[in-house]
Design goal:
By secondary structure, the protein is an alpha+beta fold. The protein has a four-stranded antiparallel β-sheet.
Amino acid sequence: MINHGKVQSTVKPQAIEIDDNSVWIAENVQEVKTEEFEGYEYDLTQYTKDEYIQILDERDKMKSDAILELSEMVATLAKGAE
C-alpha cells in the first residue's frame, strides 16, 4: 500500500480505479476553488491487486462472522419466545 496523501485534480476522481497493476482508492473528495486552483482535493491510496483482494477477503470474512453470530442470536431469541 502506498498512501499518496492529499492530492489535487481538475477531474473528479472515481472512488475506485483499477489499472493493470494497482487499485486506486480516492476518499474524502472535496471540491476546491481558490484563485490558483479549481478542482478536487482528496486522499489517494494505491494498493497492489493482491493487497486489495486480501482486504476484500478479510472484510467478507468479518461480515460472514457477524451474520452467523446474528443468526445464532435470532435463533436463541426465537427459542426463548416459544
